[in-house]
Each structure stands twice: as structure tokens, then as C-alpha cells.
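Late entry, zinc ion complex.
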Amino acid sequence: MISETPWGPLPGWIIYTLTVILGSCVGSFANVLIYRLPREESLVRPPSRCPACGRRIRPWENIPVLSWILLGGRCRGCHSRISWLYPAVELGSAGLAVLAVSAWGFTYAGFAYGMLFIALLALIIIDLEHWLLPFAITVPIAIIGLIGSIAFAMRPLADSLLGMAVGFAIFMLMMIGGKALFKREAMGGGDVVFGIMAGVYLGWKLTIFMIFAASLLGTLAALPLALTGRKISGRSLPFGPFLAVAMIISLYFGDTVIRWYIGLIGG
Ligand SMILES: [Zn+2]
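Prediction complete; structure with ligand written out below:
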């Protein structure tokens, strides 16, 4: 079913096997980012170690998913548990890569959207724990998208540029407005750069749609907290996870919803 590759038609099973291997390796790198970026540690040094005993992880113990299963989810040195989150991220990344390739082929666009999806997964996990959307993830993903628009006709370049401007403007307004209204940081620089990155892939219309959808999701999620009496002032939840989910919804369903809505108000 997938015949689009840079080197001509290839059997689907070869493409998907390659995609699963590449996706889980990117997922393995995503684990490094998830663990080290919020702690401001170097990404290359020191090499991977067991967080409990500091034992160096050998290359064969670092094969995505398989090593964790073969080691029974424990360190070979000290037998302390290795979090299930590591293989889950690797497996999830493989799945997301397959999702991207099934929609965009084994092409530059397939690569770009695969990287975007895996980055969104990493951003959700980092933001839930640390309330951070690191530039070290959003900026490269924005550049990958821009290269796609410039060199691979992934999207109309003008729409990507407009999307970046709209994303920047809305998040800046929310940041400044939030500060003035609530006297607190309602938005951070991480959200602003996320808006710019999303704009590259979504264009201006879907960027606005994404911000609406994220606000709606955030409000719905905060409602049970408010009803059970937990104080909601400013932010009680990080906004990043809602942005990431809203971005996926916008990519897949945004155009349909906008068309339906215009039909509704335009008659
Ligand atoms: Zn250990």
C-alpha cells in the first residue's frame, strides 16, 4: 500500500520493518531527552547509566524494548527496577512512526511528521512532570517542518510562515495578558515557541483552531478538579499536554471541523 519511497517502490513489510526499527531508536533518544533535558544534563556525556547504582549500560542492554524485556525490567548490576516508561516510550514511538509513514509514505513528510509525533509524546511527558516545553525539542522540530515546506512542498510555505506568526502572536498576547490579569505567569516562553512550531505544520487557520481546542480540553480537564473543591487559580495543570493533543486533533480533523462550522454559520 505504501509505494512512495525516495528509491522507488519497496514491499510494504520492508518499509514498515524499517519504520519500526527507526521509530524505536528515535524513541530511545527521546528517553534520553525526557530524562536529561529538564535536569540540564549533557545529552552525550556521560553515557547511559543506571540511575540507582551508576552502572554503565552496555550497548546490547540498550536495544529498544527488547533489552528491557530480556533483563526483566531490572538493572543487571543492582537489580533495581527500570521504569516501564522507557520501553513504553520506545514502543509508542515505533507506533507513531508507523502512523506517520502510513499517512505520508516513506518520504521526507513521513519523516517530519514521525519526528513531530514522537516529539509531542516527549513534550507531554516532560511537561507533566516538570512544567517545561524545552526549546531543544520545539526548535529542531520547527526547523524540520520549515525545511519540508521550503524544499519538499510539504505545505505551502506562505501558510507555514503565517502559521508561525499567528502562533507567536497569540501566545505572546496570552503571556502578556495572563501576566496583567492574574499577576502570574500564565504562559511561558516554552508555550510561545510551541505555538511557532505548531504554526509551521498547521498553517494559520489550524493554529487558531489548535489553541481553541487546547483551551477547551484544558477547561474540561480542570472541571473535575474545580468541582471536587481543589483550588483553581491561574494554572493547576501544565498546558503543554493539551496543546500536544490539540495539535494532533487539528492535523487530522481540524479542516473538517472548520468546514462544518463555516457551513453552519454561513447557511
Ligand atoms: Zn543498577
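The CA atoms of residues 7 and 119 lie 27 Å apart. Will revisit in the morning.
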